[in-house]
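During the second half of the funding period, the structural biology subgroup turned its attention to how the target accommodates small molecules. The most pressing case was 0RA, which had performed well in the primary screen but for which no bound structure existed. We therefore specified the complex as follows and requested a full 3D prediction, including the ligand pose.
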Amino acid sequence: MEEKVKGSYTADNIQVLEGLDPVRKRPGMYIGSTDERGLHHLIVEVVDNAVDEALAGYCDTCTVEIARDGSVSVTDNGRGIPVDMKKIVKNGKQVEVSAVEVVMTHLHAGGKFGGGGYNVSGGLHGVGVTVVNALSEWLDVEVYRDGKIYRQRFNRGVPMRDLQVVGKTDKKGTRVSFMPDADIFETVEFNYDTIRSRLREVAYLNKGFTVNLIDNRDGREKNETFKFDNGILDFVDYLNRTKETIFPESLYIEKVLSDSEVEIAMQYNDGYSENIYAYANNINTEEGGTHLEGFRNALTKVINDYAHRNNLLKDEDKLSGEDVREGLTAIISVKLKNPQFEGQTKTKLGNSEMRTIVSKVLIDGFGTYLEENPGPAKELVLKTITAQRARDAARNARELTRRKGVLESSTLPGKLADCSDKDPRNTEIYIVEGDSAGGTAKQGRDRRFQAILPLRGKILNVQKARLNKVLENAEIKAMITAFGCGIGDEFDESKLRYDKIICMTDADVDGSHIRILLLTFFFNFMRPLIEKGHVYSAMPPLYKISKGKRIEYAYSDKELAAKLDSMGRKGCEVQRYKGLGEMSKEQLWETTMSPEHRTLIQMTMEDAFEADEIFSTLMGDQPELRRQFIEENAKLIETKDLDV
Ligand code: 0RA
């Protein structure tokens, strides 16, 4: 290696480039997408390597730092990527390069040399840190190992020179710093909150593991640490923090069975929704899979068995899965050797043995809990029996409504101004607050592809209401008929009449409430709408700034100040919109409805989940709590700048 001088790398470069070329050519195949989601996935890939080290017992801390230049570094105190020399074949010749370089430039080389254990890294797309390297303008890797600091730099996946020893250290671990490649990604600006929520999840899923997040960008300096000694148990308590719970303490079951590790945390609350989150090797298996099936089957069995044995339920009666999951918050986290991920987004666990394993663990752990805690056990069974009765009543009500032709009626609601294009791939529907804004929107829209549905006032708080009440609500009925896709079990995406469902509300507290209520309604009754990315929020501007012929719009006080500065304050006239209804149809089109100029925000499951959680508090009658929530959830509610 010694006689290797700078420049002699050229031949190898071509080889390496070829090796990572597929990644740069089709980034979507490796990280899902090149939008903001894909961008943030880069961080996840590196963090997952640290988690692997933690799972193997070598690492307890990971620090993610956003640098002032917008690059990100991920530091862990694991073993450090191995630095020994490896023989590999390049251009038909055998050469020696460091293991660090092999890991960084060869897809699947990250596959830990030897060693059992469960790996989370390279999980979702099977590639890990190599892909981050391929998709970064530059990447610096530093390894702390055997008392030395090693460093290597890559540009767009190509090593600039061999791995170097650059100093001494008594630390151990790895630091990977990278600048995402702007040629690849639609945006290279990292979002603190997006990173934060994933890191918090990682910390919940790996009890005792410390995750630090530091933002060093100018004006955005921030620093947080996540560490949960009780792991997913803390997660369940967090999810239930605003709710009344049934068990005195949340339940935690942990067991290693047939080489797989199963962790379950659960608690019932007095609400009606079911919130079960299943993970496999730290990956959120959004499409479910065998572990979730095992859990569900076992839950139904355990509760029915207990109820029958204790004469709480007649022999011939049976509680359904839905009944026993009403008000349940649960996290199922499994770790296994060779996870098989299936499904559209590769987030469905396929290993059939997990069905039996999880089922056994739950029957054993939860069965024992019920036997040992007759008080809470009885309360739970009575709750599920109530749920069953209510469900029967709701089913009858639904039958009734259906017969009346409300759900599947072909007559669209009178308030709906439909669009002329009937191809749902091209169309969108604006849900607008109030008749006055609705009127303007109807006049301002492009009627070929934009439909308008005005809502009168606030829609029903669906979380606290049962199905039959929900279906009686006029605003909700109007939405169901307009969308055409049905609700709940009968939801059918192929019948959806619009591609985009856009909530257009005022930029004030009431507007936020309505948006949160809408989101909660979709979350509880039409969840796939959010999961499939059909739901958006349109942001109307708060201010119009005119100077002579020039007109600008600002969406916050901050932006107003910035725009005024850039336009030169003199001679600027500022108009503050109190509501959508105050805008002219031209202004509404120009700022909020024209696909060319508008800012649409896609609503994510994360948004919906937060909305579902916080809205009960928002709609409650405690103004102080309400104010506090609005402040804390400014991102979601976007009213922070508005002195509520
Ligand atoms: C390959 C093998 C081993 C560890 C790693 C890679 C590793 C990669 C990354 C990426 C970020 N942090 C990391 N930490 C470790 C096993 C190490 C050994 O056997 O000594």
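Two results from this model are relevant to the next phase. Residues 1-17, 110-116, 122-126, 635-644 have pLDDT under 50 and may be disordered. Residues 46, 49-50, 53, 76, 78-79, 81-82, 103, 110, 112-113, 129, 174, 176 surround 0RA (CB under 6 Å).
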